[in-house]
């Protein structure tokens, strides 16, 4: 089926524009993160007692709050609000890029590494917007968008692939089911990966004030980071499991076996085991905290390793998706 080159070009333009807008949003989040003064819990209690606004946390308890200069919004908060608006605009362009790519090729727009990365980062940013609406974590946007921008830049340069029909091996309805599950879960798992790394930085700062001296005080409390990482992971993990199961069914239909220990299958299974270990450790009192955060960080590192190194370097039955 011929490719609509015009729509493909528009898709590329939207992708580049979305990446640039995410950069500006990241700068806005960074400004808010850097210049917002943070009050300790005791100060928040005094402010609330004097009629100041309460700050919600995932568990409904007290948290660090922002101390604004004057009655109006501070410049730092305005920068954060602009960053959210830019993020939403970036998502609209990002989604437009993915849709245009699909219409141009008349197929699901995740048949190669460029398209897969595009879709995965879109899920990550949408997940972040949803999380910001529920919890007071906006200033952490700089840490979430930084890997998104880096991966999108790599996708648009190193991994870019011209719009074209997929290879015969991928011409199956399982491309929609299996790969979409992998995209959704991988995109969502980026967020708890970042939270767990920030948790470790926060704990390090609390234990040794000389480390992360500027970053630590501006982060949410460690318990909030831990809960957010756990709740996001526990939502994404069943989707990841479903994706692996669908992949096994597709493998049986395409290659005559459910599991063949192909490099990508093996590393995906290793990531699943590590995430299962994280959820188990997080539910076990003796392994909460730093140990669980380290396991979650390792799990996300395995997912990224599987996405790039296995797809691009190691030869296997999934190598056709590397182009």
Please explain how this structure is put together:
- The chain is mostly helical.
- It has a domain at 167-323.
- The chain is 69% helix and 1% strand.
- It is built from 9 helices and 2 strands, in the order αβαβααααααα.
- It has helices at 5-35, 41-49, 75-105, 113-134, 141-157, 174-207, 222-255, 263-283, 290-312; strands spanning 38-39, 65-66.
- A two-stranded antiparallel ribbon has the order 1-2.
- It starts with a helix and ends in an 11-residue tail after the last helix.
- Mean pLDDT is 81; it is low at 39-72.
Features:
single chain; 323 residues; two-stranded antiparallel sheet; 69% helix
In short:
The chain has 323 residues and is an all-alpha fold.
Largest sheet: 2 strands, antiparallel
Large-scale geometry? flat
Mean pLDDT rating: 81
Helix/strand/pairing category: mainly alpha
Work out the radius of gyration. 21 Å
The arrangement of helices and strands along the chain is HEHEHHHHHHH
Strand content: under 5%
Query: What is the topology, as strand order, of the major beta sheet?
Result: 1-2
What fraction, in percent, of the residue positions are helical?
A: 55-70%
Total beta strand runs: 2
In DSSP terms, counting alpha (H) and pi (I) runs of 4 or more, how many helices? 9
Low-confidence stretches: 39-72
Report the end-to-end length measured between terminal Cα atoms: 19 Å
